[in-house]
Amino acid sequence: MRHKALRDQVIVVTGASSGIGLATVRMAAERGARVVLAARSGDVLAQVQAEIEGVGGKAVHVVADVGRRADVQAIADKAVSAFGGFDTWVNVAGLTIYGPLRDVSDEDNTRLLQTNLWGTVFGSLVAVEHLRRRGGALINLGSVASDLAFPFQGMYAASKHAVKGFTDALRMELLDEGAPVSVTLVKPTSIDTPLPQRARNYMDREPTLPPPVYRPEEVANAILHAAVHPQRDIVVGGGGKLFVAAKEFAPGAYDLLAPAIIAFQKRGEAPRDPAGALHAPTGAGRVRGSQPGYVMRTSAYTRASLHPVATSAAVIGLGLVAALAVLGTGKATDKETGRSRRGPGRAS
Questions:
Q1: Separation of alpha carbons 187 and 189, rounded Å
Q2: Whole-number Å distance between alpha carbons of 201 and 308
Q3: Is residue 230 domain-shared with residue 343, that is, in the same domain?
Q4: 315 and 292: one domain?
Q5: What digits encode the pLDDT tens for the residues 26-40?
Q6: Taking all residues of the chain, what is their mean pLDDT, rounded to a whole number?
């Protein structure tokens, strides 16, 4: 399945006021797409819309809580009234909680699941009803936490496992009915967004992300690639892929990494805003977070996975060049020494 070029698409992005969602909206607009921005922070959305329109782009915004189905339906209705419909729907909205599972309140866990899981479910079901008629792409944001568990982010990992299960089941049902809708699950590794700063934090330290950490634009690029060239799954960050493979190979050994993973999620200073944005839209408007240490600009693994045919051809080509070089060297040596290729000590 192949979809329209980005410049001919209308793209809906939830969670568009911060992090990956904001990076995706800006990149899509730069590439000529018309964009529909949705999030809880109306003031930020209005500013981003004005920014896009100020350089000749086309955008509309909707203030919405994706945990409410009526709000999600309002996003679709706005896309239809403003642009006649949409071609790609991207479910990005999500938050996390840092702290031991035994300490987290039922209210906080319920709110996280309402956003991360039910926001994705509502967004997907509303989007697919529209896309069934005209074709297009549904792109859900999972995480390497869809395949791995992270202590002190237990409910976040649970929500991303659930997003993966739901997304896979929905894809199978659409395939069964022959719907012209591609379904992609994007699974980022740690990404330098404001997610830790906007998290609900039960720890006695400011939260951070375990390395390796990548830029939000790397995820946005993968999302927009899938809007035109659908892929089933895209892992952003080779480091994450290695962790998933290692866990599958030795799950017990991965469990023993718990103390290190917990330590990597804590900064040295005291918490800045323990309440975060779980229940109220605060701290939006930034793509990047305040991740200490090195942040990877790109992921060679992810770039290669987006273009597997070209990458395979390049690898095969390099292999042939190397083989010819070796053969050429061998022939030259044989000619110079007057020996046959049967090896030394044998008659010609």
A1: 7
A2: 40
A3: no
A4: no
A5: 999 999 999 999 999
A6: 90
* Set 98, 156, 202, 214: catalytic member: 156
Residues 47 and 161 in one domain: yes
- Confidence at residue 307, expressed as pLDDT on a 0 to 100 scale: 85
pLDDT-based confidence at 328, cuts 50/70/90?
A: low
Asked if residue 9 lies in contact with residue 142, where contact means CB atoms within 8 angstroms, the answer is no
Helix (H) and strand (E) counts in the chain: 12, 11
d(CA 230, CA 1): 7
For residue 1, tell me if it sits in a domain. Answer: no
| 93-104: average pLDDT | 98
Q: In total, how many domains does the chain have?
A: 2
pLDDT-wise least confident of 79-93, 258-272, 289-303: 289-303
Residue 232: which of 217, 240, 222 has the closest Cα? 222
Could you confirm whether 301 is annotated as catalytic? Answer: no
275 and 334 co-located in one domain: no
315 and 248 assigned to the same domain: no
| 323 in the same domain as 221 | no
Q: Which domain holds residue 339?
A: 309-348
As beta bridge partners, residue 235 has: 187
Residue with tokens 């005291």: 270
